[in-house]
Protein backbone atom coordinates (compact mmCIF):
# COMPACT_ATOMS: atom_id res chain seq x y z
CA UNK A 1 0.00 0.00 0.00
CA UNK A 2 2.93 2.32 0.69
CA UNK A 3 3.76 2.58 -3.03
CA UNK A 4 0.18 2.80 -4.20
CA UNK A 5 -1.62 5.99 -5.17
CA UNK A 6 -5.00 7.62 -4.70
CA UNK A 7 -6.71 9.63 -7.44
CA UNK A 8 -7.89 12.94 -5.99
CA UNK A 9 -10.53 14.77 -8.05
CA UNK A 10 -11.75 18.34 -7.57
CA UNK A 11 -14.85 18.69 -9.74
CA UNK A 12 -15.72 22.23 -10.83
CA UNK A 13 -18.33 23.71 -13.13
CA UNK A 14 -15.80 24.50 -15.89
CA UNK A 15 -12.63 22.57 -14.97
CA UNK A 16 -11.91 19.29 -13.19
CA UNK A 17 -8.58 18.97 -11.38
CA UNK A 18 -7.12 15.47 -11.00
CA UNK A 19 -4.00 14.31 -9.13
CA UNK A 20 -2.26 11.06 -8.21
CA UNK A 21 -1.34 11.27 -4.54
CA UNK A 22 0.56 8.95 -2.19
CA UNK A 23 -0.75 7.79 1.19
CA UNK A 24 1.67 10.33 2.72
CA UNK A 25 0.10 13.21 0.81
CA UNK A 26 2.75 13.73 -1.85
CA UNK A 27 1.41 14.76 -5.27
CA UNK A 28 3.00 12.54 -7.93
CA UNK A 29 1.25 14.03 -10.94
CA UNK A 30 -1.55 16.57 -11.44
CA UNK A 31 -3.49 17.89 -14.42
CA UNK A 32 -6.83 19.37 -15.47
CA UNK A 33 -9.58 18.45 -17.92
CA UNK A 34 -12.59 20.52 -19.03
CA UNK A 35 -15.88 19.67 -17.31
CA UNK A 36 -18.39 18.67 -19.98
CA UNK A 37 -21.77 19.55 -18.48
CA UNK A 38 -23.70 19.13 -21.76
CA UNK A 39 -26.44 16.48 -22.10
CA UNK A 40 -27.32 16.78 -18.41
CA UNK A 41 -23.71 16.06 -17.44
CA UNK A 42 -23.80 12.46 -18.64
CA UNK A 43 -20.15 12.53 -19.80
CA UNK A 44 -18.60 13.93 -16.60
CA UNK A 45 -17.73 10.73 -14.73
CA UNK A 46 -16.88 8.86 -17.95
CA UNK A 47 -14.42 11.62 -18.89
CA UNK A 48 -12.80 11.53 -15.44
CA UNK A 49 -12.39 7.74 -15.57
CA UNK A 50 -10.99 7.96 -19.10
CA UNK A 51 -8.53 10.71 -18.09
CA UNK A 52 -7.29 8.62 -15.15
CA UNK A 53 -6.82 5.50 -17.31
CA UNK A 54 -5.02 7.44 -20.05
CA UNK A 55 -2.68 9.11 -17.55
CA UNK A 56 -1.82 5.78 -15.89
CA UNK A 57 -0.96 4.35 -19.33
CA UNK A 58 1.08 7.44 -20.19
CA UNK A 59 3.06 7.05 -16.95
CA UNK A 60 3.54 3.33 -17.58
CA UNK A 61 1.68 2.40 -14.41
CA UNK A 62 -0.79 -0.43 -13.82
CA UNK A 63 -4.31 0.52 -12.73
CA UNK A 64 -3.79 -1.95 -9.85
CA UNK A 65 -1.58 0.76 -8.38
CA UNK A 66 -4.66 2.90 -7.63
CA UNK A 67 -6.38 2.42 -4.28
CA UNK A 68 -9.48 4.45 -5.15
CA UNK A 69 -10.90 7.79 -6.22
CA UNK A 70 -11.71 10.58 -3.79
CA UNK A 71 -13.83 13.39 -5.19
CA UNK A 72 -14.92 16.85 -4.10
CA UNK A 73 -18.06 18.21 -5.78
CA UNK A 74 -19.91 21.54 -5.50
CA UNK A 75 -23.06 21.35 -3.40
CA UNK A 76 -24.29 19.36 -0.39
CA UNK A 77 -23.33 15.67 -0.50
CA UNK A 78 -24.70 12.75 1.49
CA UNK A 79 -21.34 11.20 2.36
CA UNK A 80 -22.67 7.74 3.21
CA UNK A 81 -24.52 7.26 -0.09
CA UNK A 82 -22.35 9.52 -2.27
CA UNK A 83 -25.44 11.29 -3.60
CA UNK A 84 -25.05 14.98 -4.50
CA UNK A 85 -28.27 16.58 -3.31
CA UNK A 86 -28.49 19.98 -5.01
CA UNK A 87 -26.51 20.37 -8.19
CA UNK A 88 -25.36 23.71 -9.61
CA UNK A 89 -23.51 24.22 -12.93
CA UNK A 90 -23.05 20.52 -13.73
CA UNK A 91 -26.18 19.69 -15.69
CA UNK A 92 -27.22 16.84 -13.37
CA UNK A 93 -30.63 16.50 -11.79
CA UNK A 94 -30.78 16.92 -8.00
CA UNK A 95 -30.03 13.79 -5.93
CA UNK A 96 -27.49 12.56 -8.48
CA UNK A 97 -25.75 9.25 -7.49
CA UNK A 98 -22.19 10.54 -8.05
CA UNK A 99 -20.32 7.85 -6.09
CA UNK A 100 -22.15 5.05 -7.88
CA UNK A 101 -21.55 6.74 -11.26
CA UNK A 102 -17.78 7.24 -10.83
CA UNK A 103 -17.31 3.72 -9.40
CA UNK A 104 -19.10 2.22 -12.41
CA UNK A 105 -17.11 4.34 -14.88
CA UNK A 106 -13.68 3.76 -13.30
CA UNK A 107 -14.10 0.29 -11.73
CA UNK A 108 -12.53 1.65 -8.52
CA UNK A 109 -13.87 2.31 -5.02
CA UNK A 110 -14.80 5.97 -4.52
CA UNK A 111 -15.65 8.48 -1.81
CA UNK A 112 -17.45 11.76 -2.49
CA UNK A 113 -17.63 14.91 -0.37
CA UNK A 114 -18.50 18.60 -0.78
CA UNK A 115 -15.65 20.51 -2.46
CA UNK A 116 -15.23 23.10 0.33
CA UNK A 117 -15.07 20.27 2.87
CA UNK A 118 -12.34 18.64 0.76
CA UNK A 119 -10.38 21.91 0.72
CA UNK A 120 -10.66 21.99 4.53
CA UNK A 121 -9.43 18.39 4.79
CA UNK A 122 -6.52 19.19 2.45
CA UNK A 123 -5.46 22.16 4.57
CA UNK A 124 -5.78 20.06 7.74
CA UNK A 125 -3.67 17.23 6.29
CA UNK A 126 -0.95 19.04 4.35
CA UNK A 127 -1.52 22.80 4.62
CA UNK A 128 -2.11 25.70 6.99
CA UNK A 129 -4.03 23.49 9.43
CA UNK A 130 -0.72 21.79 10.20
CA UNK A 131 -2.42 18.69 11.59
CA UNK A 132 -4.92 20.64 13.75
CA UNK A 133 -7.92 18.44 14.57
CA UNK A 134 -10.36 21.33 14.97
CA UNK A 135 -10.39 23.59 11.96
CA UNK A 136 -12.69 25.84 9.96
CA UNK A 137 -11.78 26.53 6.34
CA UNK A 138 -13.45 29.41 4.49
CA UNK A 139 -13.00 29.59 0.72
CA UNK A 140 -13.38 33.09 -0.70
CA UNK A 141 -13.75 32.72 -4.45
CA UNK A 142 -16.58 33.37 -6.91
CA UNK A 143 -18.76 32.37 -3.96
CA UNK A 144 -17.97 31.70 -0.30
CA UNK A 145 -17.63 28.07 0.80
CA UNK A 146 -16.93 26.57 4.18
CA UNK A 147 -15.75 23.35 5.76
CA UNK A 148 -15.82 22.53 9.47
CA UNK A 149 -13.56 19.85 10.96
CA UNK A 150 -14.15 18.69 14.55
CA UNK A 151 -11.86 16.11 16.17
CA UNK A 152 -10.36 15.33 12.76
CA UNK A 153 -13.67 14.63 11.02
CA UNK A 154 -15.78 16.78 8.70
CA UNK A 155 -19.02 18.00 10.25
CA UNK A 156 -21.59 17.02 7.64
CA UNK A 157 -24.87 17.75 9.38
CA UNK A 158 -28.24 16.09 8.87
CA UNK A 159 -28.39 16.70 5.12
CA UNK A 160 -24.73 17.16 4.13
CA UNK A 161 -25.21 20.93 4.24
CA UNK A 162 -23.15 21.83 7.33
CA UNK A 163 -20.50 24.51 6.86
CA UNK A 164 -22.49 26.70 4.45
CA UNK A 165 -20.73 29.75 5.88
CA UNK A 166 -21.30 31.78 2.72
CA UNK A 167 -25.04 31.69 3.36
CA UNK A 168 -24.97 33.14 6.86
CA UNK A 169 -27.05 36.32 6.66
CA UNK A 170 -25.01 39.46 7.30
CA UNK A 171 -27.42 42.09 5.94
CA UNK A 172 -30.93 41.18 7.16
CA UNK A 173 -32.71 44.10 5.46
CA UNK A 174 -32.00 45.36 1.96
CA UNK A 175 -29.19 42.91 1.21
CA UNK A 176 -28.23 41.95 -2.34
CA UNK A 177 -29.81 38.81 -3.88
CA UNK A 178 -27.74 35.65 -3.50
CA UNK A 179 -27.67 32.69 -5.92
CA UNK A 180 -29.10 30.52 -3.12
CA UNK A 181 -32.39 32.42 -3.31
CA UNK A 182 -31.90 34.43 -0.09
CA UNK A 183 -30.66 38.00 0.22
CA UNK A 184 -27.85 39.53 2.26
CA UNK A 185 -25.69 36.39 2.56
CA UNK A 186 -21.99 36.71 3.45
CA UNK A 187 -21.31 35.54 -0.13
CA UNK A 188 -22.89 38.74 -1.47
CA UNK A 189 -20.23 40.88 0.22
CA UNK A 190 -17.12 38.76 0.85
CA UNK A 191 -16.80 36.76 -2.39
CA UNK A 192 -14.85 38.13 -5.38
CA UNK A 193 -18.24 38.74 -7.04
CA UNK A 194 -19.57 40.53 -3.96
CA UNK A 195 -16.49 42.76 -3.62
CA UNK A 196 -16.79 43.79 -7.28
CA UNK A 197 -20.51 44.49 -6.81
CA UNK A 198 -19.82 46.75 -3.82
CA UNK A 199 -17.11 48.56 -5.76
CA UNK A 200 -19.30 49.05 -8.84
CA UNK A 201 -22.15 50.41 -6.72
CA UNK A 202 -19.83 53.05 -5.27
CA UNK A 203 -18.23 53.87 -8.62
CA UNK A 204 -21.62 54.25 -10.33
CA UNK A 205 -22.39 57.15 -7.99
CA UNK A 206 -20.00 59.02 -10.28
CA UNK A 207 -18.27 61.00 -7.54
CA UNK A 208 -15.32 58.66 -7.11
CA UNK A 209 -11.81 59.88 -7.79
CA UNK A 210 -8.58 57.97 -7.33
CA UNK A 211 -6.88 54.77 -8.42
CA UNK A 212 -9.92 52.46 -8.43
CA UNK A 213 -11.91 54.88 -10.59
CA UNK A 214 -8.91 55.20 -12.91
CA UNK A 215 -8.65 51.41 -13.26
CA UNK A 216 -12.33 51.24 -14.19
CA UNK A 217 -11.87 53.98 -16.78
CA UNK A 218 -8.80 52.27 -18.25
CA UNK A 219 -10.12 48.68 -18.35
CA UNK A 220 -13.90 49.10 -18.55
CA UNK A 221 -14.29 46.83 -15.50
CA UNK A 222 -12.66 46.08 -12.15
CA UNK A 223 -11.78 42.93 -10.23
CA UNK A 224 -11.48 42.18 -6.52
CA UNK A 225 -7.70 42.22 -7.08
CA UNK A 226 -8.02 45.85 -8.30
CA UNK A 227 -9.86 46.71 -5.07
CA UNK A 228 -7.16 45.23 -2.81
CA UNK A 229 -4.26 46.67 -4.79
CA UNK A 230 -5.86 50.13 -4.84
CA UNK A 231 -6.51 49.89 -1.09
CA UNK A 232 -2.85 49.03 -0.51
CA UNK A 233 -1.92 52.12 -2.51
CA UNK A 234 -4.08 54.31 -0.27
CA UNK A 235 -7.20 54.70 -2.45
CA UNK A 236 -9.99 56.00 -0.20
CA UNK A 237 -12.88 54.26 -1.99
CA UNK A 238 -11.06 50.89 -2.12
CA UNK A 239 -10.34 51.18 1.62
CA UNK A 240 -14.01 51.93 2.30
CA UNK A 241 -14.95 48.69 0.51
CA UNK A 242 -12.17 46.74 2.28
CA UNK A 243 -13.50 48.03 5.60
CA UNK A 244 -17.03 46.82 4.84
CA UNK A 245 -15.92 43.40 3.56
CA UNK A 246 -13.58 42.69 6.47
CA UNK A 247 -16.13 43.91 9.03
CA UNK A 248 -18.64 41.29 7.88
CA UNK A 249 -15.99 38.57 7.57
CA UNK A 250 -14.52 39.29 11.00
CA UNK A 251 -17.96 39.37 12.60
CA UNK A 252 -19.04 36.05 11.05
CA UNK A 253 -15.74 34.29 11.81
CA UNK A 254 -15.87 35.49 15.43
CA UNK A 255 -19.42 34.12 15.75
CA UNK A 256 -18.29 30.78 14.30
CA UNK A 257 -15.28 30.71 16.62
CA UNK A 258 -17.48 31.55 19.62
CA UNK A 259 -19.55 28.48 18.76
CA UNK A 260 -16.76 26.02 17.87
CA UNK A 261 -13.48 27.41 19.29
CA UNK A 262 -11.36 25.72 16.59
CA UNK A 263 -7.55 25.68 16.65
CA UNK A 264 -7.51 27.65 13.41
CA UNK A 265 -9.71 29.37 10.87
CA UNK A 266 -8.06 29.16 7.46
CA UNK A 267 -8.95 31.60 4.68
CA UNK A 268 -8.47 30.26 1.15
CA UNK A 269 -9.70 30.89 -2.39
CA UNK A 270 -8.71 33.57 -4.89
CA UNK A 271 -9.67 36.49 -2.63
CA UNK A 272 -7.27 35.26 0.09
CA UNK A 273 -4.38 35.97 -2.28
CA UNK A 274 -4.77 39.61 -1.20
CA UNK A 275 -2.66 38.48 1.77
CA UNK A 276 -1.95 40.59 4.84
CA UNK A 277 -4.12 43.57 3.85
CA UNK A 278 -7.12 41.21 4.05
CA UNK A 279 -5.98 39.07 7.00
CA UNK A 280 -4.92 41.99 9.23
CA UNK A 281 -8.26 43.79 8.79
CA UNK A 282 -10.26 40.58 9.35
CA UNK A 283 -8.17 39.84 12.46
CA UNK A 284 -8.94 43.31 13.83
CA UNK A 285 -12.69 42.73 13.54
CA UNK A 286 -12.39 39.14 14.74
CA UNK A 287 -10.66 40.37 17.94
CA UNK A 288 -13.47 42.89 18.47
CA UNK A 289 -16.28 40.33 18.29
CA UNK A 290 -14.73 37.11 19.66
CA UNK A 291 -15.18 36.03 23.28
CA UNK A 292 -11.90 36.60 25.14
CA UNK A 293 -11.04 32.92 25.68
CA UNK A 294 -11.77 32.25 22.01
CA UNK A 295 -9.81 35.29 20.84
CA UNK A 296 -6.78 34.08 22.79
CA UNK A 297 -6.86 30.52 21.42
CA UNK A 298 -8.34 30.46 17.89
CA UNK A 299 -5.92 31.76 15.26
CA UNK A 300 -6.66 33.01 11.74
CA UNK A 301 -4.33 31.97 8.90
CA UNK A 302 -4.15 32.11 5.13
CA UNK A 303 -4.42 28.82 3.23
CA UNK A 304 -1.12 27.52 1.86
CA UNK A 305 -2.13 24.85 -0.66
CA UNK A 306 -3.82 26.99 -3.32
CA UNK A 307 -5.54 24.88 -5.97
CA UNK A 308 -4.08 21.65 -4.53
CA UNK A 309 -6.24 21.75 -1.38
CA UNK A 310 -9.27 20.14 -3.05
CA UNK A 311 -7.46 17.18 -4.64
CA UNK A 312 -5.47 16.51 -1.44
CA UNK A 313 -8.61 16.58 0.69
CA UNK A 314 -10.37 14.29 -1.78
CA UNK A 315 -7.47 11.83 -1.56
CA UNK A 316 -7.63 12.01 2.24
CA UNK A 317 -11.20 10.62 2.04
CA UNK A 318 -9.83 7.36 0.60
CA UNK A 319 -6.83 7.30 2.96
CA UNK A 320 -9.22 7.73 5.91
CA UNK A 321 -11.48 4.92 4.64
CA UNK A 322 -8.50 2.55 4.30
CA UNK A 323 -7.16 3.43 7.75
CA UNK A 324 -10.42 2.69 9.54
TrEMBL record:
SUPFAM superfamilies: Actin-like ATPase domain. GO terms for cellular component: cytoplasm. The keyword Cell membrane does not apply. It is an enzyme of class 2 (transferase). One of its GO terms (molecular function) is ATP binding. InterPro entries: ATPase_NBD (IPR043129), ROK (IPR000600), ROK_cs (IPR049874), ROK_glcA (IPR004654). Pfam families: ROK. This is Glucokinase. One of its GO terms (biological process) is glycolytic process. Gene3D superfamilies: 3.30.420.40. Its EC number is 2.7.1.2. The keyword Lipid metabolism does not apply. Belongs to the ROK (NagC/XylR) family. It comes from the Bacteria. Keywords: ATP-binding, Kinase, Nucleotide-binding, Transferase. The lineage of its organism: Bacteria, Bacillati, Bacillota, Bacilli, Bacillales. It comes from Neobacillus vireti LMG 21834.
Amino acid sequence: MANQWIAGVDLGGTTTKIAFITMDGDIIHKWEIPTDNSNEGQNITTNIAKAINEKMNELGESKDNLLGIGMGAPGPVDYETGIILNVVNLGWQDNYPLKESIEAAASLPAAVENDANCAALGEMWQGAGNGAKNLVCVTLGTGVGGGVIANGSIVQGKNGAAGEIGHITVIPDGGAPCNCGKTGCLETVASATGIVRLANEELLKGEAKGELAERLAANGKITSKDVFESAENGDALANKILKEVTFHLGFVLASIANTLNPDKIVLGGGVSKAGSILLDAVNENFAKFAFSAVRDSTKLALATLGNDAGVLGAAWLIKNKLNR
